[in-house]
């Protein structure tokens, strides 16, 4: 991702990542893309959410990178999956064939606070860092 930060600005950078950009990446590439941006204090919005195994890996790597005087972790919220999508059934769920979320918001735990979440809205408060 090209360097677009402007250190003299007091604003919050939001990285909007398209489904096309993230679909071509392996799990660890997705995790690094997200965490590198969040480490810089940015908010990441994924057009298409991560699947459950990718989200688990993101949480696992995040936990290993938390430090008492540095990175505080992430806050993650995902819209629910499309209720019109076909149910993958029990076998499909066991094989990890679950529909991905519609939209995922990820940010530094010390900067983003979820105020409200339902099937149509994710409302967050972003604190300046």
Keywords, please?
129 residues, 4 helices, single chain, 22% strand, 4-stranded mixed beta sheet, alpha+beta
Walk me through the structure.
The chain has 129 residues and is α+β, with helices and mostly antiparallel strands. The protein has four helices and six strands; from the N terminus they run βααβαβαβββ.
Quick structural gist:
The protein is 29% helix and 22% strand. By secondary structure, the chain is α+β, with helices and mostly antiparallel strands. Strands 1-2-4-3 form a four-stranded mixed β-sheet. Strands 5-6 form a two-stranded antiparallel ribbon.
List the helices and strands and how they pair.
Layout: E1 14-17, H1 19-23, H2 27-39, E2 43-46, H3 52-65, E3 74-78, H4 89-94, E4 104-108, E5 112-117, E6 122-126
Helix pairs in contact: 2-3
Structural class: alpha+beta
Helix content: 25-40%
Overall form:
globular
The counted number of beta strands is 6
Q: What fraction strand?
A: 15-25%
Report the end-to-end length measured between terminal Cα atoms: 22 Å
> How many domains, as an integer?
1
Give a short account of the largest sheet.
4 strands, mixed
Taking Cα atoms only, what radius of gyration do you get, to the nearest Å?
Answer: 15 Å
Helix count, DSSP H or I runs of 4 or more residues: 4
Order of helices and strands: EHHEHEHEEE
């Amino acid at each position: 991702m090209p360097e677009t930060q402007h250190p003299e600005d007091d604003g919050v950078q939001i990285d909007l990542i398209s489904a096309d950009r993230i679909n071509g990446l392996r799990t660890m590439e997705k995790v690094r893309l997200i965490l590198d941006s969040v480490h810089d204090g940015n908010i990441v919005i994924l057009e298409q959410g991560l699947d459950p195994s990718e989200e688990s890996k993101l949480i696992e790597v995040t936990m290993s990178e938390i430090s008492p005087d540095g990175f505080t972790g992430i806050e993650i919220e995902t819209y629910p999956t499309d209720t019109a999508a076909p149910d993958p059934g029990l076998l499909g769920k066991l094989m990890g064939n679950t529909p991905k979320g519609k939209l995922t918001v990820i940010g530094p735990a010390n900067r983003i606070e979820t105020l409200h979440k339902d099937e149509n809205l994710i409302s967050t408060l972003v604190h300046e860092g």
